[in-house]
Design brief:
The chain has about 325 residues and is α/β, with parallel strands linked by helices. It is built from eleven helices and eleven strands. It folds into two domains: about 180 residues, Rossmann fold, CATH 3.40.50.450; about 110 residues, 3-Layer(aba) Sandwich (Rossmann fold). The termini are far apart. Bound molecules: adenosine-5'-diphosphate.
């Protein structure tokens, strides 16, 4: 193997740059040439590649976003788009591609591998919704960003005896809501995986908490549960506590990656290059019990991730 490429695809996540840096440096140190692909699979289709050097990844380990840019590429899902991407790889002699992204991007990697270009996936998503992997790159940073913001919100909620309903990212996965909710001591945590009962899970908990002398509340809601404005109105009506909804939005994706995400990305990047050099393909790098491992992408995509119920129960018991 002489030449590989790296791309970042789908939703961005803090730590993607650290992964790019690790892949580029590991590969160059092992004698490979590396191309950076601009804007995910679109860059392969349009032949937007830049040769990477040891220095082209200097001073990026601390930066959020991705220096390679990212994109969603509907064209890549068509046979014509795929053919163009494969031709670009052949034209440049690219023998392997490292794909940093989420499950959508891994489906793309699976497809590209089927078309003869070996791919390795590195899980980069703030949602932590890759089943084979305990913690994805970006999840820790996003959870910390939410905690920072909700701590600020708490100051004003406390001063006014208010309830803050906070919507965080996670259309199908409640990991961010659960972790950040536990870390800020939210009175209620609502996640897409577990149906909630309005009175039992919110109103009664607020009332019980109130009787012990606490009069401000945080209700943490994953995006997939939705309707935070309506929920805030209902809570105010049912409890008489002034309630405001706050949607944190895209700010959760940004910012400098945490030490944990930088280290994880560095280790996964190096591991991914090793896999390619060993002749492996269609694999996704993951962590299990703190150890780096790899899974077949087909197997990884078929796995279901369930929420950590122990964490959920503990959060529920102590946040009242
Ligand atoms: P994420 O990787 O963050 O889950 P997306 O689901 O948007 O993000 O996927 C990123 C890109 O991966 C898509 O825009 C598309 O180019 C590619 N992709 C997704 N699903 C497939 C598929 N089934 N076949 C080929 N490519 C796919």
């Amino acid at each position: 193997m002489k030449k590989i490429a790296i791309l970042t695809s789908g939703g961005d996540a803090p730590g993607m740059n650290a992964a790019v840096r690790a892949v580029v440096r590991t590969a160059i140190n092992r004698g490979l040439e590396v191309y950076g692909v601009i804007r995910g699979y679109n860059g392969l289709i349009r032949d937007e590649l830049i040769p990477m050097t040891l220095r082209s990844v200097s001073d990026i380990i601390h930066r959020g976003g991705t220096v390679l840019y990212t994109a969603r590429s509907p064209e890549f899902c068509t046979e014509a788009g795929m053919q163009k991407a494969v031709e670009t790889c052949h034209r440049h002699g690219i023998e392997g591609v490292v794909v940093c992204g989420g499950d959508g991007s891994f489906r793309g990697a699976q497809d590209l591998t089927r078309h003869g270009i070996p791919c390795i996936g590195i899980p980069c998503t703030i949602d932590n919704d890759i089943a084979c992997c305990e913690a994805t790159i970006g999840y820790d940073t996003a959870a910390n960003t939410i905690v920072d913001m909700v701590d600020k919100l708490r100051d004003t909620s406390q001063s006014h005896d208010r309830c803050s309903v906070v919507e965080v990212m996670g259309r199908h996965a409640g990991w961010l809501a659960l972790t950040a909710g536990m870390a800020v001591g939210a009175t209620s945590i609502l996640v897409p995986e577990i149906p909630y009962h309005f009175d039992k899970d919110i109103v009664d908990r607020m009332r019980n908490t109130s009787t012990t002398g606490k009069h401000h509340f945080i209700v943490m809601v994953a995006e997939g549960v939705g309707h935070v404005n309506e929920l805030a109105e209902r809570i105010e009506e049912a409890t008489g506590v002034e309630t405001r909804a706050t949607v944190l939005g895209h700010v959760q994706r940004g910012g400098s990656p945490s030490a944990r995400d930088r280290v994880l990305a560095s280790q996964m990047g190096s591991y991914a290059v090793n896999l390619l050099m060993e002749g492996k393909s269609n694999r996704v790098v993951a962590t299990q019990s703190g150890q780096l491992v790899d899974f077949d992408i087909n197997e990884a995509l078929a796995m279901k991730k369930s929420l950590n119920m122990n964490k959920y129960q503990v959060a529920k018991e102590i946040s009242i």
